[in-house]
Amino acid sequence: MASLYVYSLAGNRGGQGAFAWHNCVVWILVKSYPNASREEQLKQTVFKRLTTVVAVTAVICAATAPLQAEERAVTLQEIMAIAKENNGDLKALREEVGIGEAVKIKAGLFPNPVLDLEGTTGALTGSSSENRVSFGVSQEFLTGGKREKRLAVAESELMRFGSRIKDAERLLLLDVKTGFYDLLLVESRLELAHKSQELNNQLLQITKERLVAGDIAELDVNLARVETARSEGRKIEAERELVPSRQRLLSLMGAPTLTDLKIAGSPESKPFAANPAELKALALNNRPDLQVLAAEKSKGEAELSLARAERLPNVTAGIAVSRESTALPVGGGEDRDTDYLIGLKLSVPIPFLDRNQAALKEAQTRKSSAEIRQAFVRQSIEREVEAAHARFVTAEKSQNIYAREIIPQLTENLKLVQEAYRLGEVGILAVIEEQKKFIEVNDGYLTALYNWNIAAAKLEAAVGIELKKDDGGNK
Asked: Is the pLDDT of residue 12 over 70?
């Protein structure tokens, strides 16, 4: 007789907060013999338990094996998208749009009608037979297109607030890019520290081999050990800045589910054409802070138009119905009479003293102030773009010198000196000095690449748009 055992397990796990289900089923066929001896039955029981453990272990391994492949690093574009969606300050600012929308709703409403009720009686003056009851409805009518002008003011405010949100996004993305390149520089310096450690370990191994061969003194080995220890200290120093830089970037992203971050990218630059005149034109068309001032100017014009319209008084018209009861003495008795009256009412304030001079002056001042600030910011933006472009060009020249002239030659020199020491043609001090120079110059190259990326990010922030797409997170 044979028994078929089915083992099924579902796992849920993922990297970076992402979870994926893996369902696995293991089929195990176990033969059993009902007429077997007690010893054979005990062996079958043990076998079944062992197969159960093996099956569960196999399923767990199969379920968790693909998870490492699912974990991946995050690019700069993805980080920027997360920050725009989850940054706390930006989310709070977006919520405030509701205030402007409420103002617009209020601006579009008409005045409420007024219900008037009135009752009089002569009971307290000895004329209880005389009384009057009236009720009426009145409505204020806006003149001079005030409702449309108030809506125009509210629309301008909403446009201004929308541009303000875009400007906050622009500044946030600059901070995110800076944080990303800060972290990338720290990680690159950590890789360079590992490279320094590798070079010094190789040098130590070579010195030990040459010491055994009797080619060098023990001093060379000791010097190599010192350099190895120094490279370990360099690595520890680079690791010290890793967590703070990562946490700063996570704080800007505002993603509560992320506790760790692995970024994708390498500190490499890619040239792109940037004409200063074209960049200035792009900045004047796209900078949201300039659009904020343009909206403020438009709002000032709308407020000025509204202030002029409010010099015209509104008209209030109403209608009333009244019932009057009177009693006249006639021959020792009373003649009661009841009258029903309908009245019309029209009221208009006379703008004799207050002609809305204060609101008119305030609107004119705001409009003039917005115009002055708009002109000033236009000039400031042009200067900012020019300065950012100059920094970018300088940074590009610096990193090009490293990439095309210094680094290739320095790498070749290091290989020659290492080989010369292996052959006994130079002393260990020459190798140590060349390795130091190699690490220091490569650190300078990383700094030059960092400055180039930061300059490009600031240039994009000055222009107000992305000048090019990032591949894997880097310029």
From this structure: no
Neighbours of 291 (CB within 10 A): 20
Q: Is the pLDDT of residue 59 over 60?
A: no
Phi, psi of 315 (to 5 degrees): -105, 135
pLDDT band at residue 415 under the 50/70/90 scheme:
very high
Q: What per-residue confidence (pLDDT) applies to 273?
A: 64
For 8, the token pair is 């099924």
What pLDDT score does 325 carry? 83
